[in-house]
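hey so u asked for the seq, here:
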Amino acid sequence: AANGFTYGVTASLNLFNGFLQRQQERNAKIDIENSSLNLSKTKLDVNSQLLTAYQNYATYLDLIKLEQRNVDIAKENLDITMAKYKLGSIAPLELREAQRNAIDAQNRFIEMQYQAKIAETTLKEISGNIDLSN
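ran it, structure tokens below
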């Protein structure tokens, strides 16, 4: 057999490779499920933030209307108080109080307008409708 040919075939099959692949597939499926759950949670969070922002904005719009009425009433009261003061029927302190009330009402009105603008901007930001190019 010194002059003969020798042939051999070697085959190798790793049994553990199949187990490893199945485990990797299971892990990948779990990762996909986790990503899907995270996406759902993020969507719920954004919707919740959007609803809260809308409610805040709507509340400030209502408060603007209320404060505008307060400004009108305070101005009317100031006009009446000024007329009484000119007639001498009230003390300067009462006039000062009416002036202060009118100023306070105007300040609250301006503050509500400011807060409404902030709420509007927040709402636009959360909803993705904000234009930052200006």
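The mean pLDDT is 90. Residues 59 and 116 are 8 Å apart (CA to CA).
lmk if thats what u needed
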